Amino acid sequence: MKLNILGNCKQLNYYGLHPKFNPIKFVSTAYFSKCNVHKNGKDYRLAKNVQPTLHDFMKYEKRKHLDVVTHGSNTPYTSHSDLHANNRKVYFDVHGCQMNVSDTEIVWSILKSAGFEKTEVLNDADIVLIMTCAIREGAENKIWNKLVNNFKSLKQKSSRQPNKTPLKIGVLGCMAERLKHTLLEKEQIVDVVAGPDSYRDLPRLLALTYNDQTAINVLLSLDETYADVMPVRLNEGSKSAFVSIMRGCDNMCSYCIVPFTRGRERSRPVQSIVNEVQHLVDLGVKEVTLLGQNVNSYQDLSTQSYALNGQKTETVKGFKTVYKPKKRGLNFADLLDKLSAAHSNLRIRFTSPHPKDFPDEKTTAYRHYKDDVSYEVKQKRVDILSNQFRTDAEKLNNAQIGSTQLILVEGESKRSKEYLAGRNDGNTKVIIPKIDLQQEEAGSDSVSPISPGDYVVVKITGASSQVLKGIPLYHTTLARYNRREEEANHHSMIV
């Protein structure tokens, strides 16, 4: 158990009375006082519910049973009114991968339950929360530049307005985990730092900033998956959604920082994933992307796991992998079986950033590597690779001209309101004209406009390195289209 104590003491051991938690170690490195005396003359050192002393904790230790702070409960020295946001407005600035989008929706769910409001207008915000990425140096530099060049001046401006709540800045995610105290000390812009496993603690961390305190919680967890938190969508109109099925990573690749910023690998129970997907379907979502650093490693060992009617999931004949199959619980294939059986008209994607099937012996060269290549040469090589990628991508896309494909319509094209954009099974963007379409059923004369969330069959007529262009043929459903494809494949095998 960890309890955070405000103050300057580095470490304090206290031997309590509870047999299960004896001794108790209090570690105090999490909070720093920006200033004890505010410019208005008020002394916050003696403010109510601020700066608890050891006496505050000893008072609770005298109880027969030690009160352990659990998720959703208040710390002993923070009242419920302190934790309530009183409609403070939060602005989210999201960077990085799809997992960060999913995490932001978890954060918004937690804060919304605590009384916060969300705003899309930066100047209206009382709090700015930056969901960060630490995978590449460029991503961190971009966030630092934004902090120094944008948010710093905005914060200074708000502090000069007498009737406006001083703007608070929070840094969340991987960069928060990696840089920790540096974020609080450098430029002194940031008020709250929260790692990927401490989002439940955000209402309390933000409450501490009300009295010019800075707060940090970057503890990594062995079991936190936010399985009981129903994310609140940031883009309510989108027909696609991200669903996180696991967190962390156990593959300690030499070039990757994820295991150190997101912790050890752990999976959500199948039940919680099924519940979230059902919730999304009820909201009108037509496509979900299952997220995990390495979804092949998904393993549900919970007691709530589904028994799939005694059936054993089999992999495709000839499938090879360097990963050993999970021998206990439900694996990723079991999860896909369960979701696809429950939602025949839901397109299910999954993404896994980890470079699977790379033998370990090919990742040890870094131990003997001397970086003697200049920046100019590196940049030139990147340009060569990028140009080659675009050339190859255009060839692959051109090969699809003349084919018939199913797309899920996402909305209007960014370049023209006369066109719609969707994605095919390969996640390639397809641009089609906005017209009325006939239904697939034979003999149907009724036509209807194409709307976001519609499945439409299109014929590909053009291509570039990034997008396909097509002509819409008719409306359909995912189940009907797949059934038709299976019948066509069966017929071709007979012939």
From TrEMBL:
Keywords: 4Fe-4S, Iron, Iron-sulfur, Metal-binding, S-adenosyl-L-methionine
Domain Radical SAM core: 235-495
Obligatory cofactor(s): [4Fe-4S] cluster
Domain annotation MTTase N-terminal: ranges: 88-211
Protein origin, superkingdom: Eukaryota
Designated name of the protein: TRAM domain-containing protein
Domain (TRAM) ranges: 398-474
GO CC annotation, single: cytosol
GO molecular function: 4 iron, 4 sulfur cluster binding; metal ion binding; tRNA-2-methylthio-N(6)-dimethylallyladenosine(37) synthase activity
InterPro entries: Elp3/MiaA/NifB-like_rSAM, Methylthiotransferase_CS, Methylthiotransferase_N, Methylthiotransferase_N_sf, rSAM, rSAM_sf, TRAM_dom
PROSITE patterns xref list: MTTASE_N (PS51449), MTTASE_RADICAL (PS01278), RADICAL_SAM (PS51918), TRAM (PS50926)
